[in-house]
């Protein structure tokens, strides 16, 4: 049975139970139900409304996520890829710096930003800070033309996942610094895709809850990216502990 039919079936079952319960209590000559029974009936009657509200909230959230990460084709067509990328970053309350410029363009606490970035029509972006934004795999398409991107900060981004990391190969010739710390959806399998970023000099993989055996993962990352400085804080099972366990196993085998 499909999900919509299952959901409809559950709703019908609840309705039948409520009707039966109401008839029993209305036709019974006994005293009114106890307080906790009346409370349970009230909650049961309201459960459907609450479930619908939660479902609507989830759908609205996903719709807003898709809307924020839509491809800015219109802006790119009329203003060029650099302005389109800049506008996308600012619309997600991120920040960036153009090549050859020291000034950073960011949003303020109210989400407002200066439109002065429009004065740099043909200037590529060198650094982008998308920390704690809702950038996702689809939205990354708005940055794919930025082949001069050297720094990308994605700290605490809830929608950055393994598929997102696999698409970072677009910047394999330019990216030197990558921060993916505190991203809850990244797993060990996704980190393997970073092997394509041979030019990385700094990589931050701190506090990734989806990583199992972080010590071993760090060893693998160091082998894949020998010229990269890797930061991995926030793990109890660190690299030193892994090395100690390996030494203990070797001693036991002897």
Automatic annotation (TrEMBL):
| Top-level taxon | Eukaryota
Which residue ranges does UniProt annotate as crossing the membrane?
A: none
Q: How does it assemble?
A: Interacts with incompletely assembled mitochondrial NADH:ubiquinone oxidoreductase complex (complex I).
Q: What does this protein do?
A: Required for the assembly of the mitochondrial NADH:ubiquinone oxidoreductase complex (complex I). Involved in the assembly of the distal region of complex I.
Q: Tell me its family.
A: Belongs to the ATP synthase subunit s family.
Name of the featured protein: Distal membrane-arm assembly complex protein 2
> Source species, please?
Haplochromis burtoni
Per the UniProt record, the lineage of the source organism begins with: Eukaryota, Metazoa, Chordata, Craniata, Vertebrata
């Amino acid at each position: 049975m499909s999900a919509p039919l299952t959901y409809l079936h559950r709703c019908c079952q609840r309705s039948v139970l409520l009707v039966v319960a109401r008839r029993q209590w209305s036709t019974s000559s006994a005293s009114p139900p106890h307080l906790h029974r009346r409370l349970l009936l009230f909650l049961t009657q309201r459960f459907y409304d609450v479930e619908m509200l939660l479902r609507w909230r989830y759908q609205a959230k996903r719709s807003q996520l898709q809307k924020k990460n839509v491809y800015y084709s219109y802006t790119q067509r009329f203003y060029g890829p650099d302005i389109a990328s800049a506008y996308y970053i600012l619309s997600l309350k991120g920040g960036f710096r153009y090549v050859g410029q020291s000034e950073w363009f960011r949003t303020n606490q109210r989400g407002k930003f200066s439109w002065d970035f429009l004065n740099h029509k043909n200037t590529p972006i060198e650094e982008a800070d998308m920390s704690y934004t809702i950038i996702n795999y689809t939205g990354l398409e708005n940055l794919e033309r930025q082949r001069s991107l050297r720094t990308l900060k994605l700290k605490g981004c809830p929608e950055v996942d393994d598929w997102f990391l696999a698409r970072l190969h677009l910047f394999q010739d330019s990216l030197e610094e990558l921060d993916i710390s505190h991203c809850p959806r990244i797993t060990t399998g996704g980190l393997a895709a970073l092997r394509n970023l041979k030019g990385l000099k700094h990589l931050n993989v701190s506090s990734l809850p989806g990583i199992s055996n972080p010590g071993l993962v760090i060893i693998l990352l160091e082998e894949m990216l020998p010229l990269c400085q890797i930061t991995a804080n926030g793990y109890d099972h660190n690299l030193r502990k892994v090395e100690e366990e390996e030494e203990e196993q070797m001693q036991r085998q002897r």
